[in-house]
């Protein structure tokens, strides 16, 4: 199993585009790890992660709360902007964007670290 023995420099956040890849069992994660335990194991090694699922839908408060409970203080989530904003509406008439920002701002201060929004454009 991969572990990082070197410390990353202060202020440098290293992460990946997901935490739930089953292919990582046996290399990054222990062999028999349950999907619900992957975020905790991930957060013991890396300090940030992209939330790829926000591309498809904005997660509910209970899901975000569960992520927060399974990660240490200061762990940073980078949410991918929903595809409806970047690929379907092309930033026009994007009331959901306001909701997307307010969705995370509505949590108690410090309950979830949202470092950035990731914009995914392919054309």
Folded structure, characterized:
The protein is an alpha/beta fold and 123 residues long. The chain has one domain: Alpha-Beta Barrel (TIM Barrel). Helices cover 26% and strands 14% of the residues. It has four helices and four strands, in the order βαβαβααβ. Strands 1-2-3-4 form a four-stranded parallel sheet, with no helix packed on it. β1, α1 and β2 form a beta-alpha-beta unit. The longest helix has 11 residues. It is globular and about 45 Å long. The chain starts with 14 loop residues before the first strand and ends in a 5-residue tail after the last strand.
Question: For this structure, what is the CATH homologous superfamily?
Answer: Protein of unknown function UPF0759
- Name the beta content range: 5-15%
Structural class: alpha/beta
Please give the count of helices. Answer: 4
N/C terminus separation: 38 Å
Which residues sit in consecutive blocks of at least 5 with pLDDT less than 50?
A: none
Based on the coordinates given, report the CATH architecture.
Answer: Alpha-Beta Barrel
How much is the average pLDDT?
75
Largest sheet entry: 4 strands, parallel
- Can you give the helix content as a percent range? 25-40%
The coarse silhouette is globular
Strand order of the largest sheet: 1-2-3-4
For the record, the count of structural domains works out to 1
SSE string: EHEHEHHE
The third-level CATH topology is TIM Barrel
Count every beta strand, where a strand is a DSSP E run of 2 or more residues: 4
CATH class: Alpha Beta
**Cα-based radius of gyration, to the nearest Å:** 16 Å
